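hiii so my PI (J.) wants the whole complex modelled not just the main chain, which honestly fair. so below is everything: two entries, each one labled with what it is. i double checked the lines twice but i was tired so who knows lol
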Amino acid sequence: MKVARSPSELEPAPRAVALGTFDGVHLGHRRVIETARDTGLRSTVVTFDPHPRAALGNQVDLLSTLERRLELLGEVGVDETLVVEFTLDLARLEPGEFVDEVLRPIDAEIVVAGADFRFGRGRRGDLDTLVAHGFEVRRVELLEGVSSTRIRELLHKGRVEEAAQLLGRPFEVEGTVVAGDARGGTLGFPTANLAVPPNLLVPAFGIYAGSALGHRAAISIGTNPHYGGRERRVEPHLLDFDGDLYGMRLLVELWERLRDERAFDSEEDLIAEIARDVERTREAVRPA
Amino acid sequence: MLVDKPAGPSSFAIVRDLRDKTGARAGHAGTLDPFATGLLLVLLGAFTKQAQRFVGLTKEYETAVDLSATTSTGDPEGEVVEEHEPPAEERLHERIAALRGEVELQIPAASAIKIGGERAYKLRRRGVEVDMPFRRTTVHELEVLDYDGRIVRLRTHLSSGGYVRSLAEALGGHCVALRRTSVGPFHIEAADPERVIPPEEALAEL
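here's the output for the full assembly
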């Protein structure tokens, strides 16, 4: 999949355009993108970065980084993605100006979007506006109960299995492995300390079963209360893995929430509980 | 001199008043926003040349953050950007834990740092949109004093250059009150507008 940052990077061709922010690329987004892909025209996703609500100054916990979003869009099988920088200037464009600046320069013929898609100043433009501008519009009805907001709510409650049903795959926490407290190794369960970008959603604290790098992983999210920790840590322990992850980008799938994090009476009790977490991780089933 | 700044005047106004009163050259070691109160270190006379030794100190604050809305400036003077449901207590504690330690915080658009040679707040007043950079801040301490379901009172200890307004933003709210309680080894209890601390005594504290 070709990724462009400006319309001029895309060669002239009649296009089917899927329009949307598509944070998390959930099942509803996927229907929109697949509709564009299956038209027979060259298929192009037009997406926005930063997230429009964040660019307007709101607090948004993102479901995916842009890098991951682009990978997921590529997996759906579209030809190209145009990443439009969402600035306050862009937000202020009248719907007609948005059409002239974004859709006309890439020769959009068919425009596909979710039924609730809005664009332009004050969110005044909708799919009917696009029909009025002469595009062939494919309105994709919303999947009931599937929305990025709903997925965020579920994840904040730790309900990763339900979130996976809406995403169509397990939720992933993404980050870079950085130096940690190096405590897990001395307990017999070495963990990678994941630095997660500040605007990315991290689900409710607790112990999770999941995977990373093709290995099953038991993941601790929280402050390590047994050791009186104060800072949030995201720490996967990869099963049957022996190697150096330092500096690597890691995608950690969360399959199932096993338990709350807590302090134990002794380090032996903590180790015994981690051993049980690891056993349950071996038996966990990947959702979706 | 250790001054307890009242809410209202800018840090520079306090410095100017002291300069007029003492007739000495004066400067301060770390701005407090006009709406904020608390400890301002004012350097007088030849000692203004020692400013470098005082500007990099860590700082402690107490703040009240309204978690029901974000504002364009991160303080009560800006326009409300978004109103929302404040978080449940447990969710608030999770957000706070995520902000402890070394964190990347976005510098407020209404701040005095220079972007392309001009102060960010001046650019903003001219209507220029700026993508504010992130600054690595060490949050040594961030504690909830109390939370009534909308306003949380916090105590925090930040590396030099850390913005409390950025912390408030990252929590999904804005500062409604801010008081600086210490700058490095200097505490607000010692503030005294009548006393000029001798240079050797001030340096011995560092």
